[in-house]
Every structure is written in C-alpha cells, then in structure tokens.
Design goal:
Layout: E1 12-19, H1 23-33, H2 38-46, H3 53-69, E2 78-87, E3 91-96, E4 102-107, E5 110-118, H4 121-219
Antiparallel strand pairs: 1-5, 2-5, 3-4
Length: about 220
C-alpha cells in the first residue's frame, strides 16, 4: 500500500524556505513537536536552546494563523500532524589555509514545512479531559501556593510584634538589673558611713579616757 505523498497530506500548512540552518539540525527540533498539540509545541519551541527553534516557531504560528483565518478552525483543537525539513541549496565559501591552500566552507540551508490538523472527535474528547484535569491540578497547586504565601506573610507580620515584646522584656530586665545595682551601691555606701561614725565615736571615747587619766596623774 502506497502512503500519502508529502504534498498530499491533509491539513493546513506553512512553509519557510532557505532557512540558514542545516536540515539535520532542523529535524532534531521538529522531532520534538511532531504529534504534539499546538500549545505544547509552542511551549517546547519557546524553551528550546536550539537557534533553529525560532524560525520553526514562526512557521508554526503561520500555520495556526492560516488554519484560523482561512479554514475557520479553532487553535485549541489543532495539533502538529506533520513537520519536516528538506535540504536547500548550499552556499560554498572558501577559507585560506597554510601553504597557499584553501578549504571549502559549506553554508547549509533548508526548507521547513509544518502541517497542523484538527483532532478527530474521540481524541479531542480525551485531550479536553486531560486539559481539564490539568487545569484542576493547576488550580489546586495555585491555591496551595496562595495559602503558603499568606501564611508566610502572616508569620512575617507577627514576627515584629514578638520581637517588640521580647525587646520590651529585655529592656525591663535591664532596668531592674540597673535598679538592683543602684540599691546595692546605696546600701554599701550607707554601711560605710555607719562604720565611719562608729570609728569616730570610739576615737572620741578613747581621747576622753586619755585626758581623764592624764588629769588623774597630775592631781596625784
């Protein structure tokens, strides 16, 4: 059984000619999006590190625009049914080398074609069910992220109050410690004054006793 030829494949197509990349490099990227939904294919191309992904993305966008405006199809119901890269003409340049020789530089080009088609009814139902499940999971994940962010914000708001309370407690403890030090110093000073008074009184008593003894000796 002979399959469909490349130009006979059904669907809406777009083509970019003379893309400055080799067909080998373009095919490596096209293999990633073949059979994917258009939304997934756009995401894959957007996050691809290959330089050829940019012109392929433009071709895909052109195919989607053709399907919407020319065929009246919905972009959410389309997928990449076929995509391929044909070799284009090679630009030949020369590079000077040692001993007067020259080596050839081959600048490859390619022609990129992307065909988008509408899902059949059964596959479309499966895709929509999968997207709805993904949407529910995404919404649930978003609610969880919002709840975590709100809890973190509340914790940050409560943290300054707790820090302020701890600061007040520490300040009160410092004041009490300073007051205790002042009281101890005052008591020590008062105790020192009392000892000095006792010493003065004892000294006066000794002097009076000495004077009386001197008087007694003189009278005798």
């Amino acid at each position: 059984m002979v399959g469909l030829k490349t130009n006979e494949r059904p669907g809406t197509r777009a083509r970019a000619s003379y893309v400055r990349s080799s067909a080998y490099k373009a095919r490596e990227v096209l293999d990633l999006i073949r059979g994917k939904s258009c939304a997934d294919a756009q995401d894959i191309l957007a996050f691809s590190d290959r330089d050829v992904a940019r012109p392929i993305g433009k071709v895909l966008d052109s195919a989607l625009a053709n399907a919407e405006h020319n065929d009246g199809l919905d972009a959410d119901e389309l997928y990449v049914s076929a995509c391929y890269a044909d070799e284009g003409p090679t630009l030949k340049r020369w590079r000077p080398r040692a001993r007067g020789r020259a080596t050839r530089i081959r600048k490859r080009t390619c022609h990129i074609t992307v065909i988008v088609s509408r899902y059949d009814p059964e596959t479309l139902e499966k895709v929509r069910a999968k997207q709805s499940q993904r949407g529910v999971a995404t919404a649930e994940a978003r609610r969880r992220r919002v709840a975590r962010s709100r809890a973190a914000a509340q914790a940050e708001e409560a943290a300054p109050d707790e820090q302020a309370e701890e600061t007040d407690v520490e300040a009160q403890a410092d004041v009490e410690a300073q007051a205790a030090v002042v009281v101890e110093a005052t008591e020590a000073a008062m105790a020192g004054d009392g000892d000095a008074d006792d010493a003065e009184e004892s000294g006066d008593a000794e002097e009076s006793d000495a004077e009386e003894s001197d008087k007694a000796d003189g009278s005798g």
